[in-house]
Amino acid sequence: MYRITFILLAMLTMFMTACGGNPPTPASPQTAAPAKTTEPTPAPVEPGATGRLPEVNPLDVTGNIVTAGSSTVYPLAERMAERFHDEGFTGQITIDSIGSGAGFERFCTTGETDVANASRPIKDSEKEACAAIGRTPVEFRIGTDALAVVVNRGNTFATDVTMEELALLFSSAEKWSDVRPDWPAEPILRFIPGTDSGTFDYFVEAVFNKDKEPHLSASNTQLSEDDNVLVQGVAGSPYAIGYFGYAYYAENADVLKVLSLNGIAPTAETVDNNTYPLARPLFLYSDARIMQEKPQVAAYINFFLTYVNEEITAVGYFPASDAVLAASREAWLSAMQ
Amino acid sequence: MQRPLRGVARFAGGEKQRIVVSQAKTGAYPHDVVAQRAALRKRPRVSETLIQGFLFLCGVLSILVTAGLVYELGKESLLFFTRQQWEDTNHTLVEPLDATQSTFKMSATGMALSLHGSIRIHAEVMTVVDLRGERVTVARGQQNTVAAAHAVGAEIAISRQVTLAEFFTKTEWNPQIGKFGIWALVNATLMTSLTAIVVALPLGLGVAIYLSEYAAARVRSVLKPLLEVLAAIPTVVYGYFALTFMTPLLRALFGIERVEIYNTASAGIVIGILILPLVSSMAEDALSAVPQSLRQAAYGLGATRLETAVKVVVPAALSGIAAAFIVAASRAIGETMVVAIAAGAGPAFTFNPFQAAETMTGHIVRISGGDLSYDSIDYNSIFAIGLMLFLITLGLNILSQHIVQRFREEYE
Description:
The complex is a heterodimer. By secondary structure, chain A is an alpha/beta fold. Chain A has helices at 2-20, 74-86, 100-109, 124-132, 163-169, 176-179, 198-208, 212-216, 227-235, 246-251, 268-272, 288-293, 295-315, 322-335; strands spanning 65-69, 93-97, 115-118, 137-146, 148-152, 160-161, 189-193, 221-224, 240-244, 256-258, 260-261, 279-287. Chain B is of the alpha+beta class. Chain B is built from 14 helices and ten strands. In chain B, the strands form three sheets. In chain B, strands 3-8-5-6-7-4 form a six-stranded antiparallel beta sheet, with no helix packed on it. The longest helix of chain B is centred in the first third of the chain and has 37 residues, at 46-82. Chains A and B meet through helix 1, helix 3, helix 8, strand 8 and helix 9 of A and strand 3 and helix 7 of B.
């Protein structure tokens, strides 16, 4: 009798949690009112003004903007696009969260997008692909991410790991006790970004000397381009570990715990002074001709570079230094000439 | 003496019936007879011909589409097995290489090259003959490519060749690092499908027996459509049902430490629920088709209702029930959304239903989700997996036809 009551109770609780849980929101392109009939006026460019972008008025431009790429950049891009809409832009902005590599594929190989979002710099082979379809990628650095290595809140034993231990955790170690003998002898459940992801590429470069073989052959590894799947996975077991952009940790800090690396926790300070080992730049890429032919794309990037620092902390990333942002603005100005 | 008229009338549907018209009833000869003969003669009907032609075309079209699919799958899979695949090693040249040099220095970091393996820089294929740290000695211009000069920073790709033997015997699947054992994926598919069948078989048969043997006509007319509504729910809903309801339930029952968040048991049980209407509906049709006289004979011999159902009706309908199970099994094997959401997102060879494992369909979904680049190993591999999946379901369907023919009992 007691058992049946328990099962029924468990079912009821589970049902209620299931109903109350927040389903991950899908990447939805924003739709807006029909475009206005007024002619688009290109933003005026003042040659000679260094690092000062022209005033951008989202009301002045029409047309659609197609972007795709990194799932790390996605929350930031989504926030900026929302603000661009709020300030009067009437066109449609599509942001697909498909991974940096896939984003470059769409930008450089098929040429379907105006902007590629990336969490790693463009590769030479991707530049060549771009050149083959007559595009020259222009790089805009927009901020910095501290790649967060996270465990479950219920994980009481791991708080700080060295880079060597980190490599072990994500490759040959089967159990937690294989990494440190005083950790429990439980299998390590790994949740990592898919191989199309810039986060994966960056992690392999920073932790595994660019050799993805040990990382991919690790047992109990789940891969997904959707960082929410990873969050759910790590939140699901005290013996799980994963990594992704800091914003996804910030958003789920109630169920996740971020690890310190070599004793350094990811904070605004450690990212700023470059002591956190997995701090990495975030980028937008576009092409000078696209920006000149589609004033809405130029205006969007201008808007992005002008206001990114007001939004980036709220999303969960870290502002790039003034010099770096100034260089991005410089790149915008020279692309528009 | 007047003879009766004899003739053969052909009715729609191809049945022939012999017709004898007695002269006595038809009155005067020969005028009426001629009219009657004319009436019995086959008349061309344009609309009938059109409909027949249209139906024939429908059949031809569906066969052609299937043939096209199989051709495309086969063609691309053939490429997967025959063509050399190239995978980026992340090594680059650190010194320029001209067209004649046979030794070069590459960057220190990246995937290991293998001795006597093939590598590719731009379009040129080379064979590694000696490996000393970052110093690589190669034979230039292999496989009909021309030795050319390469600049610093050129990327080095490594060759990956798939063999049928490896494909069908190994249990590790990870194309990007050269592991092509399909069993990791097939095993997970079998695990989820088996769980689904274990759930759907007894439940579905129970429902079918109840509806056909026990339920009153009014109850059945309400229950059967209600059950079939289950089939109208989108599978993505079932997927989240598995992840947010079934998995927590399993974890509450068996322990959080034992049941992983993504696991094949949860996905399998939910697929079982998903195919339940298919099983019950088809099995119920088979049971209802058993002639009433059999049941009455059983009752007449003193059998109870249960004995009649289990010992007379079910064996009589066995071929239909078996066919229902096999169609449902094919459906379970091909099910995609539920396993993509709830079963796991990494290939793993495990027989533990509480562990995460990726099925064939789930793998295809995940790999193609991130905008796959054409001509990559992953891209080519999904066709081979698709063909494997097709062969399994084709085999099951052939089996089902065989069973239907073998166990068919006809009652007239």
